[in-house]
Amino acid sequence: MLGRAKKRLTKHFGADANGEDDSSDAKRDAYESYMRRAQKKDSNQCVDVADYVEALISEKSTLNRRCLEVTTKYNRLQAHIHDVVETLPGRATTDGDSTGQETIGSLVEKIQQDFFDVIEQRDKLGREHEELRIRYGQLSRDMKAKILNLQGALDANKQIHEQSLKAKEKEKTEIIRNHDEDLKELRNANSEERAKEKKKHAEEKAEDHNRYQDLELRLLNGADGFQPKSDTEFDSDIKTVKQEITGVVHALKATRSSLCALVGQRSFVESDGSDRQAKLALECALWKVLCDRLFSTPFRVFGDYGDGLFTTWCEMFLTGGGGQATGQRWPAPTTLSERWRHNTIRSLSEASQPGHSTSRGSLTIRSSYEKNLEAIQNEMAAGIQKGSSDGSAHEFSIKRIVDLAAKLALDCFLQQCRIQLLDFAVGHKFNQTTKSEMLDRNAWNSSGITEGVVSLFIAPGLQRIGDGRGGSMDLPPFTLSVADVFLVSEG
């Protein structure tokens, strides 16, 4: 019986029924060591407090579990003691075995001692549990207080940050407003400055223009007194010659057949039922005489004397290339070539004037010039008399035409720039661009004709290369007066 009871106690309490569990003391020592370390740290480190609270919660669960185990053992022990007390005393009294009674008594005392130890251990665990609960509550309160303090600090910092942001935003707005005002003032100042600069530039430009005009006027007048002729004057002069020739031709009493015999070009003359195209052909013939005897070279107006000077001019400046005028090859226009021509023509023009000088050279030049004009006049008069019954009545008009044409030739070749004839060959194709240099004498054409060919070249126009003082010779020719032509549509 006693052996079975001892086995039951050993089963419930372990191999050492009297042994004490030291885990509680070890854990208490660990807790106190942890608290000492925690007190040495910064109280604001909430992470350590939270970790310790979590450790306390775990310790509390462990203690609860251990208390439950002790209570269970306590209840079981009470049940076994009750069983032993109820069973053993009767057997001991019946048997009268004192040794058995002492053994039972000692066993009871031992069981009671173990029971008291269990109770003491339970009370100890209860006290530890209570201490842990109190400490847990204190730490929870401390943690809440610190959390509240931190929350307050965060709210204060947030408020300060928001106030700082508002202040910075206000400062930014003020800076932007000041910048816009400064920029506006700067723009206004720049506008005023630009207006002043623009006005100053306009004044300087006007002054420069005035100085340029004064300089140009001085250059045009020149120290030698030479005055260039304007473009409009050249246009007016050649139109005057054209009108004089047209007037003489239209006043002739001539039949279409006689004019056709005079000028040839039968197909052109007979293509029209009237004598209108025949008279245009006569104008062409008269202009051909003038071009050959007055405008073919810059020196041709002086007759045979001028031919030698043209040869000299070409030998000096004709280095390949050059312009083409009335079939003669001229040197390319340069400042030197045109200056030599200008100075030479100017001397010849002065020498050809009556009463200028009685020197042999002047008399030779004047004689050659007058003979050339007389030959031109005779050639034109002979042609008109051959094709008209009243040709002799127009001798005065013919002389006037030759004089005007000779003066125009001298004026052209006296210029420091190059003035040359503008002509077009028969069969030359024209378009919208080149037509601007032509005057169409075909009355049957509409003004909208834009393409075709030249059927008859009637009278030349004039072109200028360079400026009035002999510069800008590399620029393309500028048309001063258009050429008179008879245009027909191609095909």
Description:
- The protein is of the alpha+beta class and 491 residues long.
- It has two domains: 2-170, Helix Hairpins, CATH 1.10.287; 222-488, no CATH class.
- It is 69% helix and 8% strand.
- The protein has helices at 2-13, 23-40, 46-95, 98-221, 231-251, 256-263, 266-270, 276-295, 304-317, 335-352, 360-387, 395-414, and strands at residues 324-325, 328-329, 418-422, 429-430, 438-440, 452-459, 461-465, 478-481, 483-488.
- The strands form three sheets. Strands 4-6-9-5 form a four-stranded mixed β-sheet. It has a three-stranded antiparallel β-sheet with strand order 3-7-8, with helices on one face.
- A hairpin with a 2-residue loop joins strand 1 and strand 2.
- Helix 5 (231-251) packs across helix 8, helix 5 (231-251) runs antiparallel to helix 12 and helix 6 (256-263) crosses helix 11 (360-387).
- The longest helix has 124 residues, at 98-221.
- Mean pLDDT is 78; it is low at 1-22, 42-47, 89-102, 219-223 and 321-326.
- Residues 1-28, 164-209 are annotated as: Disordered.
- Residues 1-11 have a biased composition (Basic residues).
